[in-house]
Structures are given as C-alpha cells and as structure tokens.
Amino acid sequence: MDHFFLLLIWGVMVGVDLASFPQIMIARPIVAGSVAGLLLGDPVSGIQLAIIFELFALDVMPVGAARYPDYGPATVAAVYVAAGSPGILGIGIATLIGLATAFVGGTGMRIVRRLNTYDVQSHRNRLDNGDSRAVYGITFRGLMRDALRALIVTGIGLAFGYGTRRWLSVDVTTAVLVSIVGIGSALAAGTSGAIKITGRGLGAVSWIGLGALAGLALVVIK
Amino acid sequence: MTIELVRLDDRLIHGQVVVGWGNALGIECIVLVDDEISHSKWEQDIYAMGIPGNMNLVFATVAEARTRMSEFRDAKYKIAVLLRSVKDAVRLCDGVDAIRSVNVGGLHMSEGRRERLPYVYLTDEEASMLHGLAERGVAVSAQDVPSAAPVPAADFL
Amino acid sequence: MKLLRATLRSFAVQSAWNFERMVGVGIAFISIPLLQSMPGGPDELGRKAALGRAAAFFNTHPYFAGLAAAALAKAEVEGQTSEAIERFRGAVVGPLGSIGDRLIWFGLLPVSSAIAIVVAVLRSPVEALLTFLILYNAVHLFLRFWGVRVGWEMGIRVTEVFSRGVFRTMLRLAGPLAGVTMGIAIPLAAESLMAGWRPADMAGASLVGVVGVILIGRVFQQMDGLRFGLLMLGLTLTVGIAVL
Fold first, then answer.
1. Where would you tag: which of A9, A219, C100, C119 has the fewest CB atoms within 10 A of its CB?
2. What is the dihedral of CA B135, B141, B142, B147, to 10 degrees?
3. ipTM of the modeled complex
C-alpha cells in the first residue's frame, strides 16, 4: 500500500510538470514510466511501458492548446498494472488501462483551463489595472487546480489498475492477443507521430526512412 | 485550386499554422494579407523569422491580394492565405470567386469581444460580418488544428 | 537578481493558462520583479498600467515566455509608448511561438525522446532516464536563463537574435534530426518490445502497426494514436472475453 502512495505522489509530480510547473518533461512516459518501475521494484515492466507510451506520446502535437492527452500519470498507472503480471500476459492490459487514463487526463486539462478562464474573467478589472495580487492569485489557483487534476487522474488510473489486478481475469490467449494489438498500436502511433512531426513531404519521410534503415541495422548487429 | 487554406487568426504565423496545418496540407507558400504589415518592414522581419526554410512568405495589402487572387489560385504550389481581421477577410472574399471557404482559426479576447468558442472571441459586428459571408456562399467554419473537428458557422455565430 | 527571480518565475508561466488570455497572466507573473525598477516606486500608476498591459492576451512557447516578458518589461521601463509596446506584442506573439514549437516540440523533444528509447533498448532504463533528462534540459534550461537575460538586454530589438546563424542552423536541422532519430528508435523499440515472441505474434503486431499508420489521421478527423489504441484494445479484450 505504501507503493500506492508513492505512485500517487509521483503521478501528481509528472502531471503538473506537463503544462504547469516546471516543464522539465518528467511528464514524458520515458521518465514517468521508468521511475514508476523503479519505485515498484519492477524496472523491466517500467521500461517496457515507458517505451510503449513514449511511442504514443510522439503522436501528440502540443500545438492544439488544450487537447493533449496526459500520458505521464497514464504511464504510472500502466506500470502499476504491468508490475502485477509482467511479460506478454500483462503488457496489453496495462496499455489499455494507461490509454484510458490518458483519455481522462486530457479531458481534465480542458476543465482546469476552463476554470482558469472563469477565474480570469471574474478578476478582469483587477488584472487590467495591474493588481499584482490578482496575478499571484490566479497563477497560484491555476497551479493548485492542475495539481488536483493530476491527483484525480492518477487516482483514477491507479483505481483502474487496482480493479484490473484484483478482478479482471482473462484467459492466456486473450491476454496475449491484447498485448499483440497494444504493441502494434503503439508502433502505429509512434510512426504516424514521426510523420506528423517531420511533415508528409517526400524529403521529410526520407529522413525517417534513412533513420529506420540505421535502426534495422542496429537490430541486426545488436 | 492551390489555395489550400484561407485562415483568420490574429497570431497570423505561429506553430499551429506553420507546423500543424503546414505539415498536414503540405503548404509551400504563405500569403499574409494585412494593410498595416504590408507597409511595415520591421513587422515583416518578425513574421519572416517564424517561417520554416522550405516555405515562402508573401506580404500583400487586401487590395493587392484581391487583384492577385486568380494568380494564387493558378499557382503551381500550395498556398495558405492568412488574415488577422474579420473586416479584411470580408473585403478579400467579396467578389473574389477563388475563395470558397474561410477557416476561423483563432481570434482572441479584446475590447468588446465575447467568447463564441474557446479560441474564437468576436464582437457582435464581427459575428454578423462572418454570418453575411456565410450567407453569400462562402463556407465559414472554425477549426484551430487539422486534427480537430471543424465547427460550422451556424454553431458559433 | 531580478533577472534570476524572473527566470525562476518563468517555470510556472503556464500555470494560469486560460482560453481568454492564454499565457498573458503568466507573462505578467514573470514581469512583476522586472517592473519594480520602473521609476516612481512600487505603487506608482505607471507601473500598474504596465502590469495591466502585460496581463493581456499573449501566447508563445513556454520556454520563450521569459524572453518575451523581459523584452516587454524593458520596453516599459525604457518608457516606450503603449502603442509601440502593443504593436510589438501583437507582432511577436505568433512568430516567437512558431520558432519555439519548431525548435522544441518538433525538434528537441522528439530527438531526446527517440535517443532515450535507443538508450533504453541498447543500455538500461536508468541510463535512458538520465540521457533524456540531461540532454533535453541542457537546452531547456539554457533557453530559460538566456531568454530572460537577452530579452532584458535588448528590449523590443530582441527579435534580432533569431537572425543569428545558430538559430537558423538549429531550426533547419530540427526536422531532419527528429526524422532520423525517430526512424532509428521505432525499429529498435519494436524489436525490444517483441523480444522472445513467436513469429506469428510478431507478424500480428506488425499488421496492427501497418493498419494503424494507414488509419490514424485518416478515417475520421479525431482518429489519433490514443483513440486508435483504445478502440483496438477495447475490441480485442471484449471479443476475447466474449468468445474465448
């Protein structure tokens, strides 16, 4: 149970890091997931889910203001699930729980920013007149809202995870199938993210192709 | 038709436009339509720095843009036209058949404006101008990024 | 000292992010220590008016917010007219964001992320973690500290720094570098995630991958990686539980 508490704190830290403070990108799954793995004493599950969700995160364009899913707490929840049943049996279900958490997290971000907007609207005069206490108040309350959001999202993710570990029992074939589909989806998201980031043109895609050749060569000689 | 996008956005050139839309539509040239900026060298320099190396940037006044619209339409490369004021968009579209649709991408809070969508704030006058444009057959819709669903004029004006 | 305080505040610039002013309140938050040096002491009307202007609508990449806030505050302290300041503010909002997005979200971040995946596969989780945090934040922290300094130094002439060769080179390299590193990372990730699998299972995952690349961004507008994954996994689990 003490793990649960540690994971909750870590989830809040990575959730707040994404957009509010300090944006050093511990919010990225590669960090959030591997640390969660270390906290749970299962670094292998940690890094596997970290890689899977890092691939999903490549597909997110943060230029859309408020729509991005929050993969930090999601990866923490996913690692929590995977640590219960490691390997190909658990990784797919863990991915599903993580994706569901990310979905909830993205909606939460919208709500926080909407509440910040109301806050700004109700202090419009004080802001326009240069009242520094209004600036401090709105900033502080915004940060607190985001922390609360991160707490709730991580809590939901861990609750999903707890429920899954406790009550969901699937046969081996289904568990393996879900893992196959989960990893396939992650690779699809990563690839389409790479294309979105570099652009659809021939020149851009050829850079990815060049890299992929080098990557395949590394796979062979590894 | 190589005018891929006609966009109303008070930030004009920014990430959503050059990377979001630029990558999705393969935009090769941006035509920035604004009377003030067309006459201001230092502002042009600032906007030019926001453009990736593989894109061209052309500045035009509304009047210039109107006369060159058929040239833009027949151009061999893909063009995005950017405007920051509703009034200019209406002036540009009226009587120019080349423009069939206007994307409202981001108009933000300022004096007298009211929220219509999270990224669209309009005065009543601006809303009725856009409404008029839509009634004259131009497809007016709001959409900030390519991955979002477009919101038709009727739903936010 | 006030530059340091402004820099530290810039780490929280998006805390008050809202649809009406976006990062405007954050710009004001950073400006407060910088505007203290305006003539007339802490309660002067001029300083309050400047802070009010700082809190208006603004949007930029968070790592460049300090640069913008410092440049705007410097213009205020220098006593530039509010028209000139607002004109500068309006002109810089988009392009500065564009530079930040291309440099960070479409350059540094995917490059660091891809390199971290490669290190995770070839070396160890802890090394991947450290590589990512150090590589990414070396650039990130430099931009935060340098931004406030150069913004304060140059005021509204700050945009000149972006015509420097370093920036041009980095902006030009960002896309290709991101493409190559992500290209390297994805096959390595695939190999490591499917290590020890039967060939049929690998083929299955690859098939899902190919189908996904074709479907994401195509079928309906909001079909992103997240929704594709949720849909596929949900279906598989439901069918698996129902049939098997």
1. A9
2. 180
3. 0.94
